[in-house]
């Protein structure tokens, strides 16, 4: 019986080593090449409605009062909102061109997502975030760990 338990523990260690050093890098490569660009599009589509609602409200008020309007709307969102000039943002050239086309710029920083959209024909940008992003690596490891635990019983 002791021998069986030792083999079981060695097997579990081997599974965790394989998952960590083989499956995880493959998953990260797949995630970086295929899932992350789709996730940026998903974020863009999901928050387009929020951008529209806020921009519609801001178009009803003079530019000088935009900060007050955004602060009053802040209570309806679970993430920070801000209005700032385009020049104050440190964006790459490609992101500035996306803003010029009135599209949403999605930036990933660590485990956070930050979204920017130009407000009408002004040089002002509405920023949403940082918003916590979903971590697929933790999900994968939790699923594998759960499967190993279930397989043991």
Briefly characterize the structure.
The protein has 153 residues and is α+β, with helices and mostly antiparallel strands. The protein has helices at 2-59, 66-73, 93-100, 136-152; strands spanning 81-85, 105-109, 112-118, 124-132. Helices cover 59% and strands 17% of the residues.
Map the helices and strands.
Layout: H1 2-59, H2 66-73, E1 81-85, H3 93-100, E2 105-109, E3 112-118, E4 124-132, H4 136-152
Antiparallel strand pairs: 1-4, 2-3, 3-4
Helix pairs in contact: 1-4
Task: Describe the protein.
Strands 1-4-3-2 form a four-stranded antiparallel β-sheet. Helix 1 runs antiparallel to helix 4. The mean pLDDT is 81. The longest helix is centred in the first third of the chain and has 58 residues. It is elongated, with a radius of gyration of 23 Å. The protein starts with a helix and ends with a helix. It has 153 residues and is an alpha+beta fold. The chain is built from four helices and four strands.
């Amino acid at each position: 019986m002791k021998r069986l338990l030792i083999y079981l523990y060695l097997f579990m260690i081997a599974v965790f080593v394989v998952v960590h050093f083989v499956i995880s890098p493959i998953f990260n490569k797949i995630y970086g090449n295929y899932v992350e660009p789709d996730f940026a599009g998903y974020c863009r589509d999901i928050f387009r409605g929020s951008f529209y609602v806020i921009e519609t409200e801001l178009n009803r008020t003079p530019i000088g009062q935009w900060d007050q309007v955004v602060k009053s709307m802040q209570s309806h969102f679970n993430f920070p909102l801000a209005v700032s000039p385009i020049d104050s943002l440190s964006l790459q050239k490609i992101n500035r061109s996306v803003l010029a086309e009135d599209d949403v710029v999605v930036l990933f920083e660590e485990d956070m997502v930050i979204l920017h959209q130009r407000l009408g024909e002004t040089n002002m940008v509405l920023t949403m975030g940082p918003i916590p992003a979903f971590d697929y690596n933790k999900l994968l490891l939790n699923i594998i760990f759960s499967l190993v635990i279930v397989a043991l019983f």
